[in-house]
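cron nightly-structures :: item 1 of 1
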Amino acid sequence: MNTQPKISVIVPVYKCEQYIHRCVNSILNQTFSDFELILVDDGSPDNCGEICEEYAKKDYRVKVIHQVNQGQAAARNNGVKEAQGEWLHFVDSDDMIHPKTLEILYKTAIDNDVKLSMCSAFQGENIPDDFSKNFDITANILNMDEENIFHLCKNEKYYYWVVWGKLIQKSIFLKHPLTEGRIYEDNAIVCKWLHEAKKVAVIPLPLYFYYINTSGTTKKNFTEKQLDILWAFEEQISYFYSLDYEKMTEHLVSYYFEISANMYYRAKHEGNNKKHIKIIKEHKKHIEKTYSKYIHLDTENKLYIYKKTNPFMFFVMRIKRKLLK
């Protein structure tokens, strides 16, 4: 038995007993077998803890951590603390991976001498019938300079924004761990992994299935926790500003104002909480003051922002644009 696996697969587990079996089975049935699976039971109130223990009894590669509920970031961080592998792969407990995900990600990383490889994903409520089909492996090797990071940020949501679907050297994660107590923690940190890796392998194959419950049409009321999205963008802006990546900084600042406007709209219309609105305004003022030279909003940016925050100005701008045509 290999006590030093090449890959540590980490799954934070919380309220997912309906999906945990397909997730874990998809990992244990990988064609690449030199891995350990760390299931982090994040104080789940259902039967997930017991299900995890049953898997550990059946397969020596499975380890289980039980903790009081601390959130997904803490679950992932604690999983990494126990990880023996040089490489890390994260899977959400209601998702699943293609039978060759680990094989393809690992082989591509080793063959191309990169510290991070990543794949695309299917997303939806139902697993595609051909999800497990064989693929011809193709990979694009990208230097993580500003231009390529900008492209990923603007066009490739799976590659730039999320922790899953990636094989990453543990040393990079340890340098940039997830911020505990936050949501949108991957939005804040993955960009730092990409830059730290220097060079990455992009595999344009949907080797990950991201489950979306499309039947849940009722939106939850707006909560203060959702304002963490502003924090996540502020982390990105600050990071690229420190690198003198002006194109990235300007793009993220423009994006930030749209996100801020959307948060303002939701806070006003899904709760009308004055405290939340005040926090949003304070964050926006901070960005305006700190990064004023990077604020270059085009007409589409302004239209979106006014649509969410100032309907009268949105109406005026639309009239002006029609008159100028």
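cron nightly-structures :: done
Residues 222 and 266 are 6 Å apart (CA to CA).
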